[in-house]
Amino acid sequence: MDVRPHLALIATGMQAWREYLVESIAREYRIHLFAKSRPSWELEYVDGVTVVNTLEPDLAIAAARAVHDTDPFDGVLCWDEARIWPAACVAEALGLPGVSPDVVERCRDKHLSRTALDAAGVPQPASVAVASLEEAAREAARIGYPVVVKPRALAASVAVIVVESADLLADAYERVRGTTLPEVEEYEYGVLVEECLRGEEISIDSAVFGGKVVPLYLAHKRKGYEPFCEEIGHVLLADDPLLSDPALIKVLEDTHAALGFHTGMTHTEVFLTETGPRVVELNGRLGGDFIPYLGGRVTGIDAGLAAAAVAVGRGPAVERTRTGAAAVEFFYPEVATVFGALRVDEALLHPATDKVVPIAQPGELVERAEDGYMWARYAAALAIADTEDECRAALDAAAKAITLEPAPPGTASVPAGPAMSGAPSEPTPMASWRRAPDAGGQAGPDAGGQAGSGGAAGRAGSDGGGAGSAG
């Protein structure tokens, strides 16, 4: 009998971004995956699958309860931005560890976050939710230029724009207002006008258990393509002194307390300003952009196992057993290109190169980041070394080693990344699989449905990646 804890995993995201988490968790937990379409690569790691519209809490709860009644879950886990709220609803309905759906909504809705942080006196930028260009202009003038104009509840820095002067506000406002994601809620007051902070921006991935916030990894952001706030890379140091900085730790703890976040994994973004740390936002999930992967490699703290432990009510293993530095850099086309292949001259790679990962897939049209397209990345290079300088050398070498090969002329193309606008995904028929004892690693259909009724899985994985998979 398999005595490993039983974990309900709500979506996985894109294989390139999140497989390492699933692989790690599967070593110590039985995983039942809830996905909106039939999974592909995930089948190697999971013990069961239910195909269901994971965006609808009632459907997700019913599907989870159907499994829970015969094979009880010990916890619910989700790192997909669009689905962390339904996942919280599932955990609450089954009486499992986690924060309430209200807390998750407070984190996802940046206006609610700002309101809660302001009430608790947590340092942050001035921020106002607006519903018209006229309101935006009035509030921007009151706050003072430059300002940041951003969506109220998207992710991955999508449509976050620095506006230097009043004559540039209208274009920025319309761009932000017109940017939507199919699986993300829209708001009447859907645009935030905020004070533009100056200083270095960092992110901290933390495990929160029993109300205690334990910082795991701290990443220094590299941004580019102004006025857009595209995150072009990150640098992590295992022994970063900021991880024990009293002022930063206080702000981090106060932020979690103000939002009521007491159990789970978080990704908090902070500006280090002349007047001290100021909070940009707290996301109620693990970070993206390979930060948990790199953090685990340089510290020895396994993000997947830490997240799973917290999800089932266990204290996470957070002892640091390694030292060093790690970094990731993303690559962008100079002109809009239909992706054909990624060529890597391995002879040019630096020894500190961990891996080069294609992000775009053949046939995808990769646009220019300079034009404000937020899924303009076609590849990533990851480096792990003793020092930051060695990582930098490895990334510089990788830039010379990789080549974006366009698809042949006339190739039919689709946009890279998730659609930027459109109607929510259609519900999918529910089907369920359980791993048979003699299945040899393959899950087969049980009485709950017919294998394949959920449709073929796309390259992005069981839930198309979600808004928060890559950022």
UniProtKB/TrEMBL annotation:
Coiled coil: none annotated. Keywords: ATP-binding, Ligase, Nucleotide-binding. It comes from Actinomadura harenae. Pfam families: ATP-grasp_4, ATPgrasp_N. It comes from the Bacteria. Residues 441-471 have a biased composition (Gly residues). This is ATP-grasp domain-containing protein. The keyword Nucleotide-binding applies. InterPro entries: ATP-dep_AA_Ligase (IPR052032), ATP-grasp (IPR011761), BL00235/CARNS1_N (IPR041472). SUPFAM superfamilies: Glutathione synthetase ATP-binding domain-like. Residues 114-312 form the ATP-grasp domain. Residues 405-471 are annotated as: Disordered. Gene3D superfamilies: 3.40.50.20, ATP-grasp fold, B domain. GO terms for molecular function: ATP binding; ligase activity; metal ion binding.
